[in-house]
Amino acid sequence: MFDRSNLPKAVTIYEVGPRDGLQNEALTLSTDIKAELVRRLINSGLPAIEVASFVRPDTVPALADADELLIQLSPLLSSHRMSALVPNQRGLDRALHAGMREVAVFASATESFAKANLNNSVAGSLEIYSGVIKSAVDAGLRVRGYISMCFRDPWEGAVEARKVVDVAERLLADGVTEISLGDTIGTATPGEVINLLNVLDSRGISRSLLAVHFHDTYGQALSNTLTAMLEGITTIDSSIGGLGGCPFAKSATGNLATEDIVWQLHGLGISTGINFDELLATSKWLSEKSGLKIRSKTAVALVGNSRLVES
Q1: Strand partners, 179
Q2: 210-214 and 102-108 as β-strands: parallel, antiparallel, unpaired?
Q3: Comparing C-alpha atoms, which of 170, 224, 221, 167 is closest to residue 195?
Q4: The model's pTM
Q5: CB-based contacts of 138: which residues, under 8 Å, 6+ apart?
Q6: How is residue 257 annotated by DSSP?
Q7: Do 196 and 161 contact (CB within 8 A), yes or no?
Q8: Positive or negative CA dihedral for 65, 67, 70, 74?
Q9: Are 38 and 49 within 8 A, CB to CB?
Q10: CATH architecture of 4-303
Q11: Please, which residues have CB within 8 angstroms of residue 254's CB and are 6 or more apart in sequence?
């Protein structure tokens, strides 16, 4: 029998669609639409939203307007939890100038992905991030740390849990306050999720410091998330419409859809603070306004709009 007593009473949904979702889509949205998307997500009750990436414009053209976007969102920065990805000190300087109160760094558990995505080694990228994290903390910012390839790597295969833990320990020592564990190519299974969380725990890294970030390539995102919650995780990354993917793994599909996980959580009686009807309306608006394909099965089933189609 399924035992609900191990589930949390409330969960924080960390919305990554405006950054992680949009950066991997073929369409590039206007700054105005991006700003309106964030406002609608806030009105839906999303408690935390990653809104931008302060990388070089030529590396991620879809997010090249980060500075302009934050000007439009500046009235909301003091009252809502919003974050931006920063790859280096220059990115952090831009985030500080924009008035961000939270930033994120993006590390890899594997050498192959670090080279492909960061053009550096694991150790080299962590050395760069160390200074960025410390500077951000000194400036009073909260820092989130993403670790990619926590389960499998398209070049190296299965990833040893100790490699993930080594990166997590370094990020936490430098001042990161939350680690998001990424199933970057969407191949993890519930058993692997339990194993990684147990290894992290054995090294003194509490569940309270962790979030999970699943992709749905193998259709396991919801089951992996439920497993993580049963194991004590209470922060879940997701993306409106299931937008996103991994440009370094051709078969990888989008992130766990926010609509799908909220439907599941509310069905389990778990509080999210999110108005599901408003969330669904935002999904429909995004599809109609942008032409982006919505991959959320819940949204496709409930909206009944021909523009909401799975890719």
Answers
A1: 145, 210
A2: unpaired
A3: 224
A4: 0.95
A5: none
A6: B
A7: yes
A8: negative
A9: yes
A10: Alpha-Beta Barrel (3.20)
A11: 21, 24, 215, 216, 239, 241, 242, 243, 244, 245, 295
Instruction: Give the separation between CA 280 and CA 45, rounded to whole angstroms.
Output: 12
φ, ψ for residue 106, nearest 5 deg:
-125, 105
Contact between 177 and 209 under an 8 Å Cβ cutoff? The reply is yes
Q: What is the pLDDT of residues 186-238, one digit of tens each?
A: 999 999 999 999 999 999 999 999 999 999 999 999 999 999 999 999 999 99
Cα(20)–Cα(310) distance, rounded to whole angstroms?
18
* ∠ Cα 97 55 76 (to 5°): 45
What residues act catalytically? 246
Q: Which residues pair with 2 in a beta bridge?
A: none
How does pLDDT run across 20-35, given as a tens digit for each residue?
999 888 889 999 999 9
Residue 24 · residue 246 · CB < 8 Å: yes
Question: Would you kindly state where each structural domain of the chain is located, as residue ranges?
Answer: 4-303
Half-sphere CA count of 49, side-chain side, radius 13 A: 27
Buried b (16+ CB within 10 A) or exposed e, 189-220: ebebbeebbeebeeeebeeebbbbbbbbbbeb
